[in-house]
Amino acid sequence: MKKSIRALLLLSLFGFSSTSFALSESEAEDLADLTAVFVYLKNDCGYQDLPDGQIRKALVFFAQQNRWDLTNYSSFNMKALGEDSYRDLSGIAVPNDTKCKSLARDSLSLLAYVK
């Protein structure tokens, strides 16, 4: 179970790098996965005070580090992708405390880069 959480995080945090082409479907899904991680931390793990603006900056920073071009970001239904990712993350059969600790450990450091 712990491996599946790590695999999900690795996919969402590192994704596939490309050389500044329009955002692909898999990259949009990776952004949605990362967004779902932050939403899960806020809603289910007691991190309500995470500022939305800082989360947005972290998502843009993540995309820039991967050299993703976000010009076609609005062509994807990011709300639906994010909801699917959140549902998938919520459905992982691991105790919530364990899931929260793992998600926080592996993703909150990204916010430090955009303060």
UniProtKB/TrEMBL annotation:
Signal peptide start and end residues: 1-22
Any Pfam family? T2SS_PulS_OutS
Keywords from the UniProt entry: Signal
InterPro entries on file: Chap_lipoprot_PulS/OutS-like (IPR019114), PulS/OutS-like_sf (IPR038432)
The protein's name is YacC family pilotin-like protein
